Amino acid sequence: MSQSKHVKGEFVEDQALDEFDKEISLLAQNMATAFETEKYRYHYQADSETLYLEIGGLDAFSEEQIGEIAEPILDNFDLDIEEILILPLK
Question: What is the crossing angle of helices 63-75 and 2-34, to 10°?
Fold first, then answer.
């Protein structure tokens, strides 16, 4: 009986991780769309709770423009992430 509870707990945890991954992927897609590109890459570093979003063509925007574009998108997502870094795709 306790084994099935443990397995169920793992399933719930896996399901929550899947949802978190989907949310990050959706955020990255929305950012790429907002910056009018299809080229992007992201990496979540769990130990520091940092999300790295690399966006193609970001070099064409000033820091102020990036903030103006990114802020409303970030406000729409409720991710438990310590830091989100938006960087040009290399």
Answer: 140
pTM of the model: 0.79
State the SS3 of 42-75: EEEECCCCEEEEEECCHHHCCHHHHHHHHHHHHH
Quick one: which H or E segment has residue 56?
A: none
Sorted by where each begins, the domain ranges of the chain are 2-88
CB 42 within 8 A of CB 24: yes
- Number of other CB atoms surrounding residue 48 within 10 Å: 10
Q: Which pLDDT tens digit goes with each residue over 51-60?
A: 999 999 999 9
Q: Which of 12-26, 29-43, 54-68 has the lowest mean pLDDT?
A: 12-26
> Tokens 């907002």 — which residue?
34
